[in-house]
Amino acid sequence: MIRTVVRDVPRSVAYLLSGVLVGAPLMAALLVMGTLGLALTPVLVGLPLLALVALSGVPVGALERLRLRLLGSGTPTAPHTTPAEPGLAAWARLRLTERATWRELAYTFLLGFLLWPLDVLVLVGALGVPGALMGAPLQLSVSGGDTKIAKLWLIDTYGQALLCTATGTVLLLALLWPLALYARARAALARLLLAPNEAEDRRRLAEVTRSRARLVAAFEAERRRIERDLHDGAQQRLVSLSMTLGLLRLDAPPELADRLASAHREADQVLVELRELIHGIHPQVLADYGLTDALADAADRSAVPVEVDVDLPRFPESVESAAYFAVREALANIGRHSGAERAWLGGRYEDGRLRVQVRDDGLGGADPSAGTGLTGLADRLAVLDGTLSVHSPAGGPTVLSLEIPCPTR
């Protein structure tokens, strides 16, 4: 408690005193500009002055946000947006349409006509009166006879003066904490009117997060639809075409047999490529058996031998899909860039979080920002409040870790 008072009181005094130094000239400026603006409005000369009054809250708000640092708190960010066009006219038009500008103007009038006089009263009551009482012996010695303390109490002996000093000391100590509380309340009012609306920002951020999650869910649904259409449509037709070509080869004359064989091979190759494409869009093993089997299947397809240690329950489709494609991208990068001879894949679900790690014995030095494809996967995990990190010092090993908070099915 004492340490807090010793720390907060000087800051509070500096904050309130600087408020007086800002508020007193601000009141005079508002009165002059407002009076002249209203008086000269009939001849249109006053309109620019009234516009200046309306925009006066912008610089005052910026100054007041800086003054909040005197209390040891950070400077709030400005609530204004950047104009889309350069120039003073575009800036003024934007500012006059922002609610933040009018909140700043309201605070400017409060500061100019109400808050700084209150600051004076608080400083005088909390410091001036106790200080006058504590200085009673000095005042009595200067006067040489009797003196009035704080223009209220007449004393003429040093005993009375010492009693005033003791009273002033007790009163000062008693009022220091209320002084700090008042300064905090003043700062809270300033932050409420001048700082961005944090509750509104949180609401917008939550809505953006939900919107991104809905987009990912819609993307996954569309991915599955395309996979299903390719599997049930184009793939079945290619299978039928391949079978037809095979049957035609049996009865074809020799001059057509080679051409039919070539067409048959091409159809089979297209079928293989289509199956790989379908698997890349949304592997059936992931939908049917879950992430554990899908990761094992991805490890089997890796160009580098992968040791798998994965034991996971079923998760929501968006979580399984994001984790699967992140691991598949990591294994593809190992095969293309790492020079590794072996890789390790581990996955666990603990404390409500899915944790997957991919490690290799390659050369290291991987840079996720150099177009490896992991940046997009990190963004996709961020929609699920997940994180993707890559640790790859020169010489290796490279370790990719992903973590997603999620429930099980």
TrEMBL record:
InterPro entries reported for this sequence: HATPase_C_sf, Put_sensor_dom, Sensor_HK_TwoCompSys, Sig_transdc_His_kin_sub3_dim/P
Catalysed reaction equations from the record: ATP + protein L-histidine = ADP + protein N-phospho-L-histidine
EC top class, as a word: transferase
Residue span(s) of domain Putative sensor: 15-194
Superkingdom in the source lineage: Bacteria
Pfam families: HisKA_3, Sensor
Repeat is among the record's keywords: no
Keywords: ATP-binding, Kinase, Membrane, Nucleotide-binding, Phosphoprotein, Transferase, Transmembrane, Transmembrane helix, Two-component regulatory system
Chain ranges passing through the membrane: 12-33, 39-63, 105-138, 158-183
Signal transduction histidine kinase subgroup 3 dimerisation and phosphoacceptor domain: residues covered: 222-286
Enzyme Commission (EC) number: 2.7.13.3
Stated name of the protein: histidine kinase
